[in-house]
């Protein structure tokens, strides 16, 4: 059709004017024109069930009327900067985020992205501790700025090892392959703690350790129970701060908990947490929550012109209200639990599936070469294409290679949609 031709043409123009490293999904990338609930439509009229937009932008639902209305009303009144004038929606959202954060004496700083949030957390930690040494997890993803790339252990997303930080990478993210693969949970935790203690013997005392409670881009992998609690014991004895990157795990996505760090609650709340992505339901909001003592350690001005913009804050307030009033965390737990069951059933007997895992509406399927342990990025790409042909959008990720299918729908997913998506995915897996 002519609209399909025009998307192909747009892709040609995209490739001529945008960077080569801005890689899109699919051989023929999709131009999305509108969305509603858990569905999106391509320019050629194709309707897709969206099992990935939830983690990117759309935490609750596409075109949520409450958010659209709040944005339009605020945009019609005033869009200004929160940096020089009082910003009522920002104060209100900050109060709500501080209260929800679990961090005592919390202060909130709003940014425009997860990258900028993590950058701010690194700045705060470095100044507070007078050290630019940062501990980060292998296989981690924390953003695209120079310093965020410098704490990103996932080689597929870290174009340089040059960094303004002194980064020490800690084991603990993945152990499906490599030297720790044969260990049980307790042995793995002990080995990682020994590795951490060994690293602490080198160089400056680190400012902080930053970790994702569930590694997102790295393929939805969780550390074994007890690992982060054990790490924190070692680190807090030395005054090293804990930064929880909740950009993917925040706001109830993992079902059982509102924040990812709560799955490791034996160690108490982190010193700082960072958030972004879906809280604005597509409007660009990121931020840092820190204990006041840490947040207030800067003695120079530091502003983000668009961070806390009233129009994004209005979206955040409306979205958060919807999320809480409709108990979408509970929905993530219930519908996510059912979806995990369906996916496990769909994958039983599929030779290229190595593991089906996850919590809430953050589920991963790791693919391998049948009968081996070797990751299969080719199969992951093929399943993505087959699912698209069946009307389902999913994501991919993974550290060693991009061999994990990632499933993260908007948190309002219904049971019927979960079942429909699982059926499409089952056919896609079987076709591949
Ligand atoms: N941290 C994590 C855990 C992320 O998944 C991402 C984005 N994929 C970021 C930080 C960076 O967020 P942004 O793309 O908004 O800069």
Automatic annotation (TrEMBL):
It holds the Pfam family Aminotran_3. It comes from the Bacteria. GO terms for molecular function: alanine-glyoxylate transaminase activity; pyridoxal phosphate binding. The keyword Transferase applies. Its cofactor is pyridoxal 5'-phosphate. It is an enzyme of class 2 (transferase). The keyword Transferase applies. Keywords: Aminotransferase, Pyridoxal phosphate, Transferase. InterPro entries: Aminotrans_3, PyrdxlP-dep_Trfase, PyrdxlP-dep_Trfase_major, PyrdxlP-dep_Trfase_small. Its EC number is 2.6.1.44. Belongs to the class-III pyridoxal-phosphate-dependent aminotransferase family. Homotetramer. This is alanine--glyoxylate transaminase. It comes from Streptomyces mesophilus.
